[in-house]
C-alpha cells in the first residue's frame, strides 16, 4: 500500500509507527488505548511470467495486493514512558470465500488470517524508542522507500537479494529522538539455536550451492544515521548480514556479505524527489557484488499522486543467478546491468478509498516481470 511522501516515511520510523489515515478506537481510558484498523486491496495484473512448460508468457489474474487486519495499543506508564504493541495479519481477499470448504485444506494459499505481516512490542519516550519483534527493515524505511513508493511492482532491492521477509524477523532496535536534526538507529537480528529455520534458497541454478540462515546463536549488527534540515533528508544504513550464510556444493560455508546504503531526498510542498545508492559487498562469492542507483519522484496533485522512478542495477557474474535466473548461464556468466522503470498514479475516491494504475519494466531476460496492473484499496 502506498506511503505518501517523505513525511509519512519519516514518521513510520519514529516510535509507534502510524497504521494509516484511519483507525477505529475500540478502547481509550485511563491512559490505555486500543485501535483496530485494516484494509482490503484487490488488483488486476498482466505480467510476463515463467510458465509451467518453461516458456515466458503474459499471464493475467485478479489478485490480493496485501489486504490486512491489524490491532495496535498503547499505555502511558507512571514515569511518562509509553508502552505499545502492534500486530498485523494478511489474508487473500480474492480467494477468501469458501476456501476452507474445498479439498485444499492445508492452507497452501494462506487464506484466512494465516499470514503474518508485522508484530512487535516496545516502549517510547524522551529517550527515544526501543522495540522487539518483526517489522519492515531499516534499510527499506530509510533508503529504499523514499525513492520508490509503489503500489505493486517495486524495484528489485538488496533485501530481496539476501532473504526477503526472513530479514525482517527476530529484531531488537533502538531509535534515538531527533536532536538538532540528527537521528540514529541501531539494532540486531538474533537467530538462536533453540529454533529451527527453513532455508531460503531462491531456486538458484544447480552449479551453485544453497543459502541458509545461521541459527547457531547468531546476532547481526545494523544501524543508520539520518539528518533532516528544511526539506532535505540525508540517510545512511549499514548491515553486516551476519545471520545469512552460503554453503557451496563442496559443503564449505561462507558469510553472505555486507550491505551499505545511502539516500538523499528533497521534499517541498507535495513533491518528493529522492536519490538512493546501495552496495551489496558479497562474501559468498568473489564475483557477486551488486550496486544499485535509483532516482524517483512523487507528486500529490490534490486528488491523488503521480509517481515515477528509475533504477540502474550493476551486478557481477554470480549475482546474476539471484537477479535474473532466466539470463544466468553458469560459472562462465559475465557481469550484467539492468534498467528498471516504474510509472504509476492514484486517484482518491474518498478519504478511505482510492484506485491506482501502474506499470513496471525490469530489463530482464525474456522480459520476465514486465507488466501493468491496476487496483483498488479501501482502508479503515
Q: Provide the structure class.
A: mainly beta
CATH superfamily: Porin
- Please name the CATH architecture: Beta Barrel
Strand order of the largest sheet: 2-4-5-6-7-8-9-12-13-16-17-18-19-20-21-22
Question: How large a portion of the residues is in β-strands, by DSSP E?
Answer: over 45%
User: Strand count, sense and closure of the main sheet?
Assistant: 16 strands, antiparallel, barrel
Highest-level CATH class: Mainly Beta
Mean of pLDDT: 86
Question: What does this protein structure show overall?
Answer:
The model is unreliable at 3-20 (pLDDT under 50). With 380 residues, the protein is mainly beta. It has 4 helices and 22 strands. It has one domain (5-379): Porin. The protein is globular. The strands form 2 sheets. A 16-stranded antiparallel barrel has the order 2-4-5-6-7-8-9-12-13-16-17-18-19-20-21-22. Strands 10-14-15 form a 3-stranded antiparallel β-sheet, with no helix packed on it. Strand 4 (68-76) and strand 5 form a beta hairpin.
